[in-house]
Structures are given as structure tokens and as C-alpha cells.
Design brief:
The protein is α/β, with parallel strands linked by helices and about 475 residues long. It is about 40% helix and about 20% strand. It has helices at about 45-60, 70-85, 85-95, 100-125, 160-170, 185-200, 210-220, 235-245, 270-280, 300-310, 330-345, 380-385, 400-405, 420-430, 465-470; strands at about 5, 10, 15, 25-30, 35-40, 130-135, 135-145, 150, 175-180, 205, 225-230, 250-255, 260, 290-295, 350-355, 370-375, 390-395, 410, 415-420, 440, 455, 455-460, 470-475. Helix 1 runs parallel beside helix 7, helix 3 runs antiparallel to helix 6 and helix 4 (about 100-125) packs parallel to helix 5 (about 160-170). InterPro entries: Ald_DH/histidinol_DH, Ald_DH_C, Ald_DH_CS_GLU, Ald_DH_N, Aldehyde_DH_dom.
């Protein structure tokens, strides 16, 4: 462990400034308990200063009037800088939230820079203006940046989430004030400096670390035009209500309880590694985790045996240990929540066919891979988002029943179908009420829309759809009889 990063200033408008707040956020490793660093906890005055800088820069047009191709070039330069400093950034993220450096590199850095590159491509290819001919002749349709964006992100994949908020906002020409989770603020400061170095003008970007009150100040600020939030459904509901009172644009990427539907013709041995990984990636601390595995009753034992064999190799431990495949749970509170769900599953009659012992090293906030069988879809572990490495296997008799079970959820964020017949897999996927599906694996494609149905959120990220959520659409009606050609 290197010396803690003690930051005494806030990154406001692309500059380090003294905070108004006297409160400090201290960051400790969820794996070892060692101090990773500290930052000021921004108060309402600090948030106001950040929003004012964003408002002034937006109104002055220093970024929104920059041609899209030039904005794209700056984003691509940021990608280069992130990759150049990948080891340093990865080590910091790993220290803050506990994932192994390898998982940070693949699930966060590769995914995050992929999103940034896709948004740069979208900015260049997007049709910012078009002429339409309608009832009264020609109308010029113009797409413009929505304005000042307040972005609030979670702690589970902070590098990826940072990129997936900055990417579309900056590609659209917006100014951004981002509030990182109090558990993982240090990497946000580092990344913001990288974007400034890449060429984002002064005033356009700010970081306001803090907890709930900091977030409320950002959501409620009258000069914030749009809120984008990634986190829990409960917090998202509160944010949506506050934005609704103000008629403020809002997009929400929330929780999930995704179903992996294994069809009768699936290859159990070939499917098991990715099937298990999709359920317990990032120690299960992923909104897209495929935590309900639906299997045909006729092949139940075979598929479970294959999953158990794979999951048994996912060793929990310190992220610095080369043998570790699962890092710690983020904190004691979340650890207690996850272990409470495991106990609840047993109380309600499910059978834990796998419980990998958790190590006693470091903080002790470790949970080994856990697989339950005998689960019915009305059980707590099948309905609520656990956010830990816990998989519930649910048996079904026919495909229609599997689809019904998959759709019997308050959530609709992700899912997958496992089959040797891709066309059949697509047919099933189309019947599941969820925002993203994979066939024989799961991933978030940076060029395709990502978001949820039902309580999994509002709006879409990634691709053209993600860019459009940061735009306003203006129609300029030409005089009757006017022709632009």
C-alpha cells in the first residue's frame, strides 16, 4: 500500500480551489482497512460554486460551441491518457473499492474507455441538423446540448461509471458536475484532471465528493438542467421525485435481478464458466449480475453440478493476491446485508449447494460464491437485489414457464439466454421484459443502448440513444414557400 492520497482542495471548473466545507471524507480499503486517502466533503456552497462555473462555461459557449469533431478528438485524447496511466488508475480504484486489478482493467477501464470511444464516434456521425418537409414546408431541426449536467455515480464500478457519464455529456457539449460515491472519490479527481489535460476548457468540469446531502444539493440546484444517476432503485425513486417537482430532465440506471435462461439444448460444460461469471462478477456487486439462473427441470442436476465446479474456483481474498478471483464486499454494512440474504434463503427453504468459505484476512468483508437450489421465484433471494456473489437456481418445466418467471420481477435491466440454437435464443430474448439480453454470454456493448425496464430505470445510455439523452431538439420553421436547396 502506498501512502494515502490526502487531498485538501476541490476540483471545481477545472481548477483546484479551497473548499467552503470543513467536513472530510476518509477512504479506507474494504480489503485491508488501511487508509487510502481523503478528500473534502462538498457542502451546498461548494456545489453551488461548481454549478455556477458550469453554468457560466455553458452560457459562454466555450465547449458547446466547439465543433462535435473537435469534442470527439478531446474525448479520444482522454482515452489515450487513461490507457497510458492505466496501471496507476487501476491500482487506485482497486484500493478504493476492492476489485482485483485484473477486474478493474477489464470490467472498468476497458469498458469505460470503450464507452468514451463510442461516444466520440457518435458525436462525429450524429446528424446534428436536418431539414424536414412537412405541412407548412421546410423546418430545420437542430439538436443542442441540454445544458448543465449533474452526474451522480455509485461505488461498484466507479471508473466505468465516470466514463459513461462524462462521455455523453461532453460529446453533447454539456458542462458537468459529478458527485462520486463517498467510498470512491479519489479516482474521480484523477480522471477529471485527465480530461482537463486532454483539452476540456476551464469551467466545464467539476467534482463534488460527498454523501446524500451533497447529492441533494446537486439535484435541487436550479441551474442544473439534467440529472443522470446510477445507483440503487430506492435512491433513484427519490431523485426522480425531486426532478419531477422541478420538471428537470433525468435519466436513471438502477438495480436489477436479472434472469439467465438456460434452454434444454444448452451445452452445460461450455456454458458454466460464463454463466457463473455473469452471476458473481465484481463479487456480485453489479446491477447487471445474472443472479437468477433458470434451468430445465430435466437437466437441473447436470447444470448445477457444472456451475458448482466452476464457482468453487472463484477464490475470495485480498485483491493484491494473484490467486484472488473475488475481492471484498465494499463495507461492513453491505457485508451484513449479503450474509443476511444467505441466511434468509436457508430460512425460506432453499438449499445452499455451494458456500465457499470466506477468508479471515484484512477487514473480513468477504463472501465466497454461494449457489442456492430449490429456489422458487417468490423467495426473498429471488426477488431482491442482493449485490453479493449469490446465485439462485430456479427449475422450470417448459420455455413459456421460464419466460414467465424471468418477467415476474420488479426489475428489467439485463438477462441472457443459453442455447445451441441462436435463433431460438433471440426468439426467447424478445419475450423478456428487460433492457439488455445476451445469447450465451452477457456484456454491455458501448455502441448499443443500455438501460432498464420497470424499476431498473428511465432512459438509455451508450450509442446514439445515450448521446440523445443529453440533447434538446429544436424545430425552426422556415417561411412558407422557402426552399433551402
Amino acid at each position: 500500500m502506498t501512502d494515502p492520497i490526502e487531498t485538501t482542495q476541490l476540483y471545481i471548473g477545472g481548477k483546484w480551489v479551497d473548499p467552503h466545507s470543513t467536513e472530510v471524507l476518509e477512504v479506507f480499503s474494504p480489503a485491508t482497512g488501511e487508509k487510502v486517502g481523503s478528500v473534502p466533503s462538498a457542502d451546498a456552497t461548494d456545489v453551488d460554486n461548481a454549478v455556477r462555473a458550469a453554468r457560466e462555461s455553458f452560457d459562454a459557449g466555450v465547449w458547446r460551441n466547439t465543433p462535435p469533431a473537435e469534442r470527439a478528438a478531446v474525448i479520444r485524447r482522454a482515452v489515450e491518457l487513461i490507457n497510458e496511466r492505466g496501471a496507476e488508475i487501476g491500482a487506485l480504484v482497486s484500493a478504493e473499492m476492492g476489485a482485483t486489478p485484473g477486474d478493474v482493467a477489464t470490467l472498468q477501464q476497458l469498458a469505460g474507455t470503450g464507452c468514451l470511444a463510442a461516444y466520440a464516434d457518435a458525436a462525429e456521425s450524429y446528424q446534428w441538423e436536418e431539414t424536414r418537409t412537412g405541412m407548412f414546408g421546410e423546418t430545420l431541426v437542430v439538436r443542442e446540448a441540454v445544458g448543465v449536467v449533474g452526474a451522480i455515480i455509485a461505488w461498484n464500478v466507479p471508473l466505468f461509471l465516470f466514463c459513461n457519464k462524462f462521455g455523453p455529456a461532453l460529446a453533447a457539449g454539456c458542462s458537468v458536475v459529478l458527485k462520486p460515491a463517498p467510498e470512491t472519490p479519489l479516482n474521480a479527481n484523477m480522471l477529471a484532471e485527465i480530461f482537463s489535460e486532454a483539452g476540456v476548457p476551464e469551467g466545464v468540469i467539476s467534482i463534488v465528493p460527498g454523501g446524500v446531502e451533497t447529492g441533494k444539493a446537486l439535484v435541487d440546484h436550479p441551474d442544473v438542467d439534467k440529472i443522470t444517476f446510477t445507483g440503487s432503485t430506492l435512491a433513484g425513486q427519490s431523485i426522480a421525485a425531486r426532478c419531477g417537482e422541478q420538471l428537470k430532465r433525468v435519466s436513471l440506471e438502477l438495480g436489477g435481478k436479472s434472469a439467465a435462461i438456460v434452454l434444454e439444448d444448452a451445452d452445460a460444460a461450455a456454458s458454466a464458466p460464463m454463466l457463473v461469471f455473469s452471476g458473481i462478477l465484481n463479487s456480485g456487486q453489479a446491477c447487471v449480475a445474472q443472479t437468477r439462473v433458470l434451468v430445465p427441470r430435466s437437466r437441473h442436476d447436470e447444470i448445477v453440478d457444472a456451475m458448482v465446479a466452476v464457482a468453487s474456483t472463484f477464490t475470495p481474498g485480498l485483491p493484491t493476491d494473484p490467486e484472488t478471483k473475488l475481492g471484498p464486499i465494499i463495507n461492513e454494512k453491505q457485508h451484513a446485508k449479503v450474509t443476511g440474504y444467505i441466511a434468509k434463503g436457508k430460512e425460506e427453504g432453499a438449499t445452499a449447494v455451494l458456500e465457499v468459505d470466506a477468508p479471515t484476512v484484512g477487514t473480513g468483508n468477504f463472501v465466497g460464491p454461494t449457489i442456492f437450489t430449490g429456489v422458487t421465484n417468490d423467495m426473498t433471494i429471488a426477488r431482491e437485489e442482493i449485490f453479493g456473489p449469490v446465485i439462485s437456481v430456479i427449475a422450470y418445466d417448459d420455455v413459456d414457464e421460464a419466460i414467465k418467471i424471468a418477467n415476474d420481477s420488479d426489475y428489467g435491466l439485463a438477462g441472457s439466454v443459453w442455447t445451441s440454437d441462436v435463433a431460438k435464443g433471440v426468439e426467447v430474448a424478445k419475450q423478456v421484459r428487460t433492457g439488455t439480453m445476451g445469447i450465451n454470454w452477457y456484456a454491455i456493448d458501448p455502441s448499443s443502448p443500455f438501460g432498464g425496464y420497470k424499476k431498473s430505470g428511465i432512459g438509455r445510455e451508450n450509442g446514439k440513444e445515450g448521446l440523445e439523452s443529453y440533447l434538446e431538439h429544436k424545430a425552426i420553421l422556415m417561411p412558407m414557400g422557402y426552399t433551402s436547396a
